[in-house]
Design a protein that fits this description.
The protein is mainly beta and 188 residues long. The chain has one domain: Calycin beta-barrel core domain (Lipocalin), CATH 2.40.128.20. It contains three helices and twelve strands; from the N terminus they run ββαβαβββββββαββ. The strands form two sheets. An eight-stranded antiparallel beta barrel has the order 3-4-5-6-7-8-9-10. A two-stranded antiparallel sheet has the order 1-2. The chain is globular, with a radius of gyration of 19 Å. The chain starts with 6 loop residues before the first strand and ends with a strand.
């Protein structure tokens, strides 16, 4: 009788793990971390996050400051309003396998997030991919709070390429940004 599926010469072989959505995403060729540093504005985001879908009417203008640490990891300070108060959220993107790939470690099991800088020209826009578990999201950042139609189109193409669509794509306000937060409103 022929061997059963997954067996070869009487030995069980584990099927290969399914490919992670992020494995299909190439990191930006020639990415320069020093040129990535500085202030960015969150322009758009595509995600199947149920919280985002339910609260999309409450999106707040969000600004990010990127600082290169030790030449290979990134310190990210995100500034946004919550109930009218400016907050700063500090995160550290640690280098992962391959240039342009990072790991954001959270608290608790299953809270790590893989990050890929998929595309940027360093001067006007950056498209980043985030994956937690098997869930992927894509964010569009601009050096200004608005980007050209060509860049928005490019973002929407990248969103479709990872299986997301316009139903789960949200654009952020381009007014009312926070520049700082007082000490009692900083989350590390």
């Amino acid at each position: 009788a022929p061997p059963a599926l997954g067996q070869r010469s009487g030995r069980w072989q584990r099927p290969p793990p399914p490919q992670s959505p992020l494995e299909k995403v190439a990191a930006q060729e020639g990415l320069s971390l020093p040129e990535l540093a500085g202030r960015w504005f969150l322009v758009g985001m595509a995600s199947r996050c149920s919280y985002l879908a339910e609260h999309s009417h409450r999106l707040e203008a969000t600004a990010v400051t990127v600082t290169v640490m030790d030449g290979q990891s990134l310190a990210i300070s995100t500034f946004r309003k919550l109930d009218g108060t400016c907050w700063e959220i500090r995160q550290r993107y640690l280098p992962a396998q391959g240039h342009g790939r990072f790991l954001l470690k959270g608290r608790g099991y299953g809270s790590k997030v893989e990050v890929v800088v998929g595309e940027t020209d360093h001067r006007t826009y950056a498209i980043l991919y985030f994956q937690r578990g098997r869930s992927i999201s894509v964010k569009l950042y601009g050096r200004t709070s608005q980007v050209s139609d060509a860049i928005a189109d490019k973002f929407e193409q990248r969103v479709r390429a990872v299986g997301l669509n316009e139903d789960v794509t949200y654009y952020f306000p381009h007014y009312g940004f926070c520049d700082s937060a007082d000490e009692s409103h900083i989350l590390d």
